[in-house]
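Run log, item B.
One chain of 403 residues. Sequence copied directly from the ordering sheet:
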Amino acid sequence: MNKYEKQLPENIQKKKCPQCGFKNNLSTIYCQNCEYRLVPVYKPSQNFLTIPWSIVPLFLLLLLSGGLILVWRKNAVSLKQASIENFIVTSRPQELTFQNTKADSDSYLKFYNSMEDVRNVPQGVFFYGGAIASAGLRSNSIVNEMAKAQPQFHLSYIDPLNSPPDSEMGIKMVIDGQLSFSQSFRPLKQYEYDLANSRGFKLRQVPVAISGIAFYTNLNIKVPGISLAQVEKIYTGKLTNWQQLGGPDLPIIPVSQTPDAKASSSFLLQGMLEGSKRFGPNVQVVRNTTSAIRKVASTPGAIGYGAQPLVVGQRTIRLIGLSKGNSTRYVQPMTAFGAVNKQALLDGSYPLIRRIFIIFREDGHLDELAGKAYVDLLLSTEGQRLIEEVGYLPIRIIENISF
């Protein structure tokens, strides 16, 4: 055996020596006859697969294609989500750029700390109107702070031309495009939603504050309070003398503000059937809360009503307690210190509590941006503090409320 035989693998093919022609060189590196170095040719084992070099480019192409497919599938979900988010934002007209916009229509509201922090506040002059009861939101303390924080956002309160201001008229003016937004002492009604939809847009209502409706009398009426059932009887003419309520022998003169002279929609008669909702002939109608206070103060036996922040603290009239149903458990609208009884609003014990809404159009135009900016200003921590200072209960800031 040649000295190199042990070093060679078994699968070496027999090789003819090109030098001497010896044909029986088995398992050797050198020719066994002349020791000429041979070039071994390896015979593939049956355990390995032979791949022709001609298919290598095709294999690389398939490998590259597979990699690209994996990358595409990995990013497909994120790409789809990005496309949806892009559609949600850009499907609105370009003049609107809402932050935190989501499919849920309420989710784009954002609570800021100060009015100055509020974003997307448009520049221009914007008309607004609405309920008499929300007049406190138009106080100088709130309006001036808004102007200071957002000087480019000019607001102008507008009364309707041929009728007194109220929630219903303010909403109508928003629908008709006369106002950018309106303050309402009641939620939207179905016919108002339907009217807006018929004109190609939607209405949005956002609550910003809470208030109660307080009743007051002329100073000469000394009764501890009245019930809601008695309120209905007073304004329908079934109770006509204060003696029937434990008071002096004086005729009851109910005073109502013009918007509530519509008995079919008045909160005063809300517990009655539609066919029975009629005011008595003794009801005297005035334009607004200020006129009502003056009328009651100057008329013996008169009784009126108004939002707590507008009537609490008035010295020319006497506020009286109010109870639910026929109860005599009267809850006073004012504290012993002459402030609005916010604790009774907070715990729900006061019989007549209302939320104040801001109503605006969702039509993708400038008025929508103005309405949302106004809401953001009032719902900011600073805005809610200012609302609390003028006598309303803020809807989202309840800690450290002054009672």
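Observations after the first pass:
- Residues 1-12, 41-49, 76-107 have pLDDT under 50 and may be disordered.
- The CA atoms of residues 136 and 390 lie 6 Å apart.
Flagged for discussion on Thursday.
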